[in-house]
Design a protein that fits this description.
With about 130 residues, the chain is mainly β. Helix content is about 0%, strand content about 45%. It contains no helices and 11 strands. The strands form 2 sheets. Strands 2, 4, 5, 6, 9, 10 and 11 form a 7-stranded mixed beta sheet that branches. A 4-stranded antiparallel beta sheet has the order 1-3-8-7, with no helix packed on it. A hairpin with a 6-residue loop joins β5 and β6. The relative contact order is 0.31.
């Protein structure tokens, strides 16, 4: 059984930082491209950041570029996102996603439909 468990969400003032982590079990983590998405009530889930299966390539949504950093530790089956200079508009439920389908080396996947496995989400609230 594949499980993705996010942690690290919480409340922070604008300008602050949070580090989200996602622990993956039940599949060969090193073979999966990984991504982070977020969703607010009434809106569709949106892409935040992604990393290829080797960890050598990353991509970010324009809204978080320069503030967020995604990384992975294939030995620990974990993917993280460090979020700096948080803004109130970053408030959302953040989801970790694992590709599940074959992941090509050096390829970044940014669509919700590109991912087969999802975590339960962790709330991030940024106050002004």
């Amino acid at each position: 059984q594949v499980q993705l468990v996010e942690s690290g969400g919480g409340w922070v003032q604008a300008g602050g930082s949070l580090r989200l982590s996602c622990a993956v079990s039940g599949r060969a983590f090193s073979g999966d491209a990984m991504g982070w998405f977020r969703q607010t009530p009434g809106k569709e889930r949106e892409f935040v950041a992604a990393i290829d299966r080797s960890g050598g390539r990353t991509k970010y949504a324009d809204s978080v570029k320069g503030r967020f950093t995604i990384s992975r530790d294939n030995a620990k089956n974990m993917v993280n996102v460090l979020m700096n200079n948080l803004k109130p508009e970053d408030t959302a439920v953040y989801y970790c996603a694992a590709r599940g389908l074959p992941s090509l080396y050096y390829v970044i996947y940014t669509g919700v439909g590109d991912y087969e496995y999802w975590g339960q989400g962790t709330q991030v609230t940024v106050s002004s």
